[in-house]
Design goal:
368 residues; alpha/beta; TIM Barrel; eight-stranded parallel β-barrel; 15 helices; 9 strands; globular; 4Fe-4S; ThiH
Length: 368
């Protein structure tokens, strides 16, 4: 049974009605349980849980230290190219957007890798738009081979692949996969993905599992908060993470909580996810899935990231550029989206130390 079939058992659940039925005792019970089920998780996402955030935060902090210690993993994204054949309503790389597209040559990539490496980071996340003609798997493999000279952990956030293609990338050194479903609601998914291979909801939904099957050490998922109903999207994100973590016990499963940010386009979020809702989702996830990694990126402000650091976060991006060649000074490229926290790696490390946590630049090394 794949995740889609598993999740169908909740098709008859009226989430809005269920959330309205949650009372204070349901929330208190969920906070105090050792092992939460799906409905306990939903109780912690409910409006009734608003006044219990302090208790949730205390429990989330304890669980995070228990399973991860006082550590925050640091990484940065590296964009290989911004060519894309999709028409996603919310993304600057939409094929209909008119701007000069870029793709790194191996020589360009060496400069980019060198610039990032000087910061001390050993973990990177490699990104592309979706264009099998401009950035085929063979090109990505060449890039990974080069990047292994500089980095000990290389994750990818690219277009969905078949299992055998993921295996090819694992074989050359990729150890992590990030792939966001963007929105779990199928109708909204169809509305915001106007054209291109990304319109295939099921192929994208199953990509995370194909990565697990292919041998990825870590798999990171997420919904793009703002595209769909907050409660429903947060609920299905948790279900998806639990499904992967339960079925693939040797894979480190992580969840990102990205909110829509300004980009080169006019799309407006369907819903506004407040800071409090973002924090509530993070706390509920930690109580529901104590071993899941939680990533808060530079889409969020420095003030918010600093405040929530002790409450469940295990990974943060630092020294970020969302443009092709951005780390080595390419000013002509366009951002995929605007970031909020522009601090350098050094500044992020200092902030983490000030919070009595340990920044982790390397916790994985591949001996081949």
């Amino acid at each position: 049974m794949d995740f889609y079939r598993m999740s169908q058992q909740y098709d008859e659940l009226n989430i809005e009605r269920y959330l309205n039925s949650i009372d204070d005792q349901d929330v208190i019970n969920a906070i105090n349980k050792q092992h939460l089920n799906e409905l306990d998780y939903l109780a912690l996402l409910s409006p009734s849980a608003d006044k219990y955030l302090e208790q949730m935060a205390k429990r989330a902090r304890e669980l995070t230290i228990q399973h991860f210690g006082r550590t925050i993993g640091l990484y940065t994204p590296l964009y290989l190219a911004d060519y894309c054949v999709n028409q996603c309503a919310y993304c600057s790389f939409n094929s209909q957007q008119q701007f000069k597209r870029n793709k790194l040559t191996l020589q360009d990539l060496e400069k980019e890798a060198g610039a990032i490496s000087k910061t001390g980071l050993k973990h990177i996340l490699v990104l592309t738009g979706e264009s099998r003609s401009k950035t085929p798997v063979s090109y990505i493999k060449e890039c990974i081979v080069l990047l292994k000279k500089y980095f000990s952990s290389i994750s990818i956030e690219i277009y969905p692949l078949d299992v055998e293609e993921y295996k090819e990338l694992v074989d050359v050194g990729v150890d992590g996969l990030t792939i966001y479903q963007e929105v779990y609601n199928e109708e909204i998914y169809r509305q915001v993905h106007l054209k291109g291979p990304k319109k295939d909801y099921h192929y994208r939904l199953n990509a995370a599992e194909r990565g697990c099957v292919a041998g990825m050490r870590s798999v990171n998922i997420g919904t793009l908060l703002g595209l769909g109903d907050f409660y429903s999207e947060a609920f299905y994100t948790g279900l998806h993470a639990n499904y992967l973590q339960t079925k693939y016990i040797d894979v480190e499963v992580g969840v990102s909580l990205p909110r829509l940010r300004p980009f080169k386009g006019a799309f407006q979020p369907r819903t506004t996810v407040s800071d409090q809702q973002l924090v509530q989702m993070m706390l509920a996830l930690r109580l529901y899935l104590p071993r899941v990694g939680i990533n808060i990126s530079t889409r969020e402000t420095a003030k918010l990231r600093d405040a929530i650091l002790p409450l469940g976060v295990t990974k943060m991006s630092a020294g970020v550029s969302t443009k092709v060649g951005g780390h080595s000074g390419n000013e002509e490229a366009s951002n995929q989206f605007d970031i909020s926290d522009e601090r350098s790696v050094e500044e992020m490390m200092e902030m983490i130390y000030q919070n009595n946590y340990q920044p982790v630049l390397k916790d994985w090394h591949l001996f081949r």
